[in-house]
């Protein structure tokens, strides 16, 4: 069955409206679930109506593709661990960029007689699609620790990037006058793919969520460019919608980390030179403690704040923590959780984990709310958190994390830090907090340590 | 649709996209990211047309790849967003 | 431009209009009202085409009326908005 | 000179972008002036490029129209008093609706062969344009007090409205099958014009700003409909932009008055029946005072709050008030101004007036900020304000203004009310505040009274 382009375009308009409502919904906690559903419905409308497009003459390849892709998609979404979410988003985003690239390539090799606008759009889709594709895979590899998370580069890297970008633009310009050259096309594709790799390599692993949000914005722009290639309004509208909203989200995330986007993209390498000697910070100043001792401290406490970090996720200690909190509350202690906006490896990471353990929502306090209360806190339990408590961000202007707002745990009467060793967090920096007078280190796996404390409390 | 009309859609949609996102609490950054990532899988529409057209093997292969990648992006994206959001729901 | 393209512009612009206005302090209600009132004088564009076309007296007269009314709306609106806003400026 | 439609459309797109930026700018105090400029620039771009349109063959009528309209526009904008601003906006808005109506009519009588969409769009432009035109003029007449500001109506008014609306729709449907009938066209125009009058008549004068904002939204929709008639993207985009943003502004204004839009449009008549006896409220409880007595009160005061209302505007007392405040401050008294969101006759009315008298911005406190401070206030000087201080809005569920948030001046130690008589304010209600134990009435013209108090203060 085939229907007129008019009806298809009206369906695309409906899909676009659903996407708009979906994105809007996703920005508010109350409406987020419905927003996601609406966006999904929009996608269904757009796809179903496309199947009635007059250019589609056979369905075998389509069905095969949807089956393969669908199965992989479902498996990925179901199997992924919550901790691996950033990687997964990076991966999915890369696939999106790859798809836009492939669409533009298919359109190129179909060999119609595109006008100048069509060629430029094809070039843009290829360039941005390929950058998104390879860039996202580098981000994935960094997060999955397939490659080192540290910023990587080589002398002349910026020059190399400039050459690749310029080369791509020249290739597109060449294609405008000679639309049929496969060699130039593949040359462009390879240059763009390299560019994607080189752009993401020098960015530190800790900044990957921002990079992914940015690449997400790119993949929207790539889809939009593909829309110009095919004259398809759904792709144009939706792609630019995502492109713009992704860029704004990127900026909002940067703000939450107190960084500028330029600083995220190009800044780290410049500051990477300085290394701080760990021994100098820690030597002779570390006080180790035991679960029993911590339990005794907690028995006399009136207010306890738990500061979760990435280590909580690694140790899967969320349920154990809740039990500790329950025990404390049964003893009449006031317990709250201090949630730093970038604790863990993705925004909202700690909220997801603690929600899983059914910690009540109103006990999770954000940074600005909890920071003034540390002075009235008897014990702050830092659980696998490190960078988000590092006082260097507040005090040491030379530090790479200087200016990032942190949780002022050191203001509490006593600080108990639970981690396995003195090794550094994501930013690779020593943490002077561990050497403070009021800090006690409880070395061990996060979950085990918390279970031990709870047991000691119950006995005592 | 002529080019200027397309351009007009493009520009309006960009403005709309900018206005839609204003203040998002950090908790929702990841779901919003994966959700809009799924939406950018709209390129699936183009992939379907490429894969279903009758234009030679290379185009079919490219179309197939495009459909597979875009479908993973769309299905995976929406499902994983939903999974994440389900965790936030208050019991 | 075909009808569906026009409809698409219409819908996108409506969404954009809704998103643009979020929180406006009461002080700015009146200037915003008179300012967007001036913008709705865009109908002047249609009035110009009607008044400049070569289609009979009635159409010319209607076109003239339209140009006069729309011009008052546009010029008066922008100027008075500006006058009002000038009062708020801190010295 | 004539240019291709493509370039015209690109110019229209640029104009639309300027309008978007303009509206956005107008929503923030810092960017409002620039926003207005940008919108004006957009209009200039759209108009200039339209003059190059291929359908335009002669310029005499255009030039004449622009000259006449331009001169009237400039005169109106320059001569109008700040207090008459709401009327002016109503008037301008009516002209906009009239223009859309005329454009649609011209297009109709040009007698092309429009399709169904074109006819429906013509009908919509005529209907909405005429409603905006006559409705705005009724609003103008009410505000200018050419007709009574009170809600007016007759039995069966709602039925009449329904008949007019239905008739209009039937006429449009008829035109779809018989596009060339001038009789039906004018019938539609007359029905719509009547509808506009009847819709605004029953709305009280105090609600006119909301009605004008709504009619402004209509005039946008009318322009958009005219755009569909002519196939003009500038009209479509800009018209719907204004239509939507106007509707949202209407809702925001309703919220500031604590009313729903339906209540504004249809609610007043229902509640109008009840009249409250003024004598019952005031008899024997009014204490009159003199400027000298007030000056004595002020000499011992530590904190004074000035509550300006419409009477301040009427008396042009803004400069006198500032001098009083200066004198008080020279004596070491803390002086602040309480600005109610709907004090005066238009939103921001008091801000405009006091800004004119160069009262410093940070002394103007909005309702939510100042209300908790009245209890620590020695003297509240109510200057030509009435409804916005009426405690019935807080206490009397039967009152037509019940639920409107008010300034709690009655919580101050002493309240001095400056007005000429005991007559009512805009809402036409007696004000129990005047009869309270801690209230003193200072009868007289606002400006004279304030000058007298200042003089007495300086002497004493
Ligand atoms: N949230 C985001 O959006 C996001 C995304 C990407 C990156 N980041 C970055 O990630 C960092 C987050 O800070 P953070 O304080 O949460 O984490 P962190 O600084 O990365 O530190 C985590 C700590 O957990 C400890 N740990 C690991 N496994 C553990 C286990 N099984 N039991 C107990 N402890 C364990 C580690 O120390 P041991 O090895 O000694 O045990 C490590 O020091 C910031 O630098 C942030 O910028 C955040
Ligand atoms: N701001 C808006 O957007 C807006 C728009 C339209 C309507 N409204 C409505 O207008 C009202 C505003 O309340 P409001 O308290 O500012 O004003 P109001 O309730 O209208 O009262 C104004 C008072 O000023 C007195 N007055 C008039 N001329 C005076 C003069 N020369 N010297 C001294 N006093 C004088 C009048 O009493 P005398 O005659 O006894 O002197 C009158 O009682 C509300 O009902 C509001 O809903 C507001």
Automatic annotation (TrEMBL), chains B, C:
EC number of the protein: 7.1.1.1
Pfam families: PNTB_4TM (PF12769)
Compartments, as annotated in UniProt: Cell inner membrane
TM segment ranges: 6-22, 34-51, 57-81
InterPro entries recorded: NADP_transhyd_a_C
Domain NAD(P) transhydrogenase alpha subunit C-terminal, first and last residues per copy: 7-90
Keyword tags: Cell inner membrane, Cell membrane, Membrane, NAD, NADP, Translocase, Transmembrane, Transmembrane helix
Catalyzed reaction equations: NAD(+) + NADPH + H(+)(in) = NADH + NADP(+) + H(+)(out)
Bilayer disposition of the protein: Multi-pass membrane protein
Lineage: superkingdom: Bacteria
Function of the molecule: The transhydrogenation between NADH and NADP is coupled to respiration and ATP hydrolysis and functions as a proton pump across the membrane.
Protein name per its UniProtKB record: proton-translocating NAD(P)(+) transhydrogenase
Organism in which the protein naturally occurs: Alcanivorax xiamenensis
């Amino acid at each position: 069955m085939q229907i007129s382009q008019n009806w298809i375009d009206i369906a695309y308009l409906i899909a676009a409206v659903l996407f708009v409502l979906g994105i809007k919904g996703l920005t508010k906690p109350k409406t987020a679930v419905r927003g996601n559903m609406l966006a999904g419905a929009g996608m269904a409308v757009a796809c179903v109506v496309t199947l009635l497009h007059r250019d589609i003459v056979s369905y075998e390849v389509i069905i095969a593709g949807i089956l393969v892709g669908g199965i992989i998609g479902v498996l990925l979404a179901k199997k992924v661990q919550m901790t691996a979410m950033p990687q997964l988003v990076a991966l999915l985003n890369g696939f999106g960029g790859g798809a836009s690239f492939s669409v533009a390539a298919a359109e190129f090799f179909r060999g119609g007689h595109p006008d100048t606008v069509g060629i430029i759009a094809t070039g843009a889709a290829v360039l941005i699609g390929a950058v998104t594709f390879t860039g996202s895979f580098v981000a994935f590899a960094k997060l999955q620790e397939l490659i080192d998370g540290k910023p990587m580069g080589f002398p002349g890297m910026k020059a190399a990037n400039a050459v690749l970008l310029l080369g791509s633009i020249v290739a597109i310009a060449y294609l405008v006058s000679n639309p049929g050259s496969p060699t130039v096309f593949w040359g462009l594709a390879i240059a763009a793919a390299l560019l994607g790799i080189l752009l993401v390599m020098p960015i530190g692993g800790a900044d990957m969520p921002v990079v992914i949000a940015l690449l997400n914005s790119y993949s929207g722009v790539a889809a939009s460019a593909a829309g110009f290639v095919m004259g398809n309004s759904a792709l144009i509208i939706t792609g630019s919608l995502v492109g713009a909203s992704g860029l704004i989200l990127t900026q909002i995330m940067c703000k939450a980390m107190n960084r500028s986007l330029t600083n995220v993209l190009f800044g780290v390498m410049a500051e990477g030179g300085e290394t701080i000697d760990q021994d100098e910070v820690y030597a002779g100043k570390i006080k180790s403690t035991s679960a029993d001792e911590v339990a005794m401290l907690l028995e006399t406490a009136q207010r306890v704040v738990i500061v979760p970090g990435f280590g909580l996720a690694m140790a899967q200690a969320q349920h154990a923590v809740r039990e500790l909190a329950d025990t404390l509350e049964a003893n009449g202690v006031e317990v709250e959780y201090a949630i730093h906006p970038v604790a863990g490896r993705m925004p909202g990471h700690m909220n997801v984990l603690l929600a899983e353990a059914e910690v009540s929502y109103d006990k999770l306090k954000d940074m600005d709310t909890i920071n003034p209360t540390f002075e009235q806190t008897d014990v702050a339990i830092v659980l696998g958190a490190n960078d988000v408590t590092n006082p260097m961000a507040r005090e040491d202007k030379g530090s790479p994390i200087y200016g990032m707002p942190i949780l002022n745990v050191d203001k509490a009467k006593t600080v108990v830090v639970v981690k396995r060793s003195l090794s550094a967090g994501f930013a690779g920096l020593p943490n002077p907090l561990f050497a403070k007078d009021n800090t006690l280190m409880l070395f061990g796996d996060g979950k085990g340590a918390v279970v031990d404390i709870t047991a000691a409390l119950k006995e005592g | 649709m002529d080019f200027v009309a397309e351009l007009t859609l493009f520009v309006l949609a960009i403005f709309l996209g900018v206005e839609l996102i204003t203040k998002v609490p950090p908790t929702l950054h990841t779901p919003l990211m994966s959700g809009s990532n799924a939406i950018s899988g709209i390129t699936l529409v183009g992939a379907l047309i490429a894969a279903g057209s009758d234009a030679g093997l290379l185009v079919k292969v490219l179309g197939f790849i495009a459909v597979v990648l875009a479908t993973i992006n769309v299905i995976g994206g929406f499902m994983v967003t939903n999974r994440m959001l389900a965790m936030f729901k208050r019991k």
